[in-house]
Amino acid sequence: MSFNQAAWLREAGKPLEVSEAPMPVAGPGEIVIKNAAIAINPLDNHMQDLGVFVPSFPAILGCDVAGIVHEVGAEAGDRFKKGDRVIGHAINLVTGQPRDGAYALYTVVQANKAAILPDHIAFKDGVVVPFALEAAVTALSVKEPGTAMPGVPTPALGLPYPSLEQRGASSDKTLVVYGGSSSVGFMVTQVATAAGIRVISIASAKNFDMCTACGADAVFDYHEASLVQDVIDAVKSQPGQEFVGIFDAVAGPETVAHDLAILAEFGGGHLACSHPPPAEGVPENVKAGMIFAVNDVATPVWRDYVTGALQSGALKCLPQPTVVGKGLEFVQEALDKCKAGVSATKIVVELLKIM
């Protein structure tokens, strides 16, 4: 008989408490994962501190899981079987159900938001992928604008999906990624270049090599006073390229000001942000919006791309993890470390020892 525990959030602004949790059951199109590693996202801090996206308490937070398939629901057996090594994106963000939270020994994941993890990749490395992947695909591939949150439009870059055959720029399109050394920034760069898009990245100078390893054609230091002009010159350096817009993984006042200055040079365009863009001061010729990192547009990527790309090395598990500890009792410490700020790493907690 399996036993489940979770790191529960009893009320907003309070520390997590580890205690027993109901054992989840896989429904149609779902799998239950016995978690070997979970990862922390800044969104989790906002959910804990402010209660955003938490419809009721107590709650189990977290989006990123890696582990072993414990149970396979109906309609999921065509891709998974019990004992498979997998990574998955848990969707408590939209369901609010404790069974769908990552901060537990067992988590329910939709089969269309999971993929086989190749044997040569450790769980602690693979777990950095899921949330960032879905956010990246949502930012790049949504074709029609919509509204994920009241009053906050969803950007619609409408770019093609990544391909296992593609690596590096081959189309006539250029994208700027601000915050290229963040978890989602790394992933946007990888997904875009695997779709043939030329990427110009903005990051700290110490992380240039990692941005280049992800496929960025050029990288610029956000500390430089000449940043805006440097990026404009880089976009223009290849005549005939279509500038499709900017993905901003930071989306703070300073970065958005730079974004708008760059876009002004090209007569406007698309700005996809990781946080809600400013309510005022955005020109009419700029289509700005916030990504919402749960979207069925990512289903083909989970199904057809992730495992093969991980196996071949075309998709890298970046940024590298910083493991805080082993056990649910370390999740609160991990959240605190994430909240304090990290650079070019993702905070991870290991759980059960699974060979």
UniProtKB/TrEMBL annotation:
Domain Alcohol dehydrogenase-like C-terminal: 184-267
InterPro entries: ADH-like_C, ADH-like_N, GroES-like_sf, NAD(P)-bd_dom_sf, Trans-enoyl_RdTase-like
Pfam families per the UniProt record, alphabetical: ADH_N, ADH_zinc_N
Domain of life: Eukaryota
Keyword terms, alphabetized: Oxidoreductase
GO MF entries: oxidoreductase activity, acting on NAD(P)H
Gene3D superfamilies for this protein: Medium-chain alcohol dehydrogenases, catalytic domain, NAD(P)-binding Rossmann-like Domain
Matching CDD domains: enoyl_reductase_like
Domain named Alcohol dehydrogenase-like N-terminal: residues: 27-119
Sequence similarity: Belongs to the zinc-containing alcohol dehydrogenase family.
Protein name, as recorded: Chaperonin 10-like protein
Originating species: Microdochium bolleyi
Lineage: Eukaryota, Fungi, Dikarya, Ascomycota, Pezizomycotina
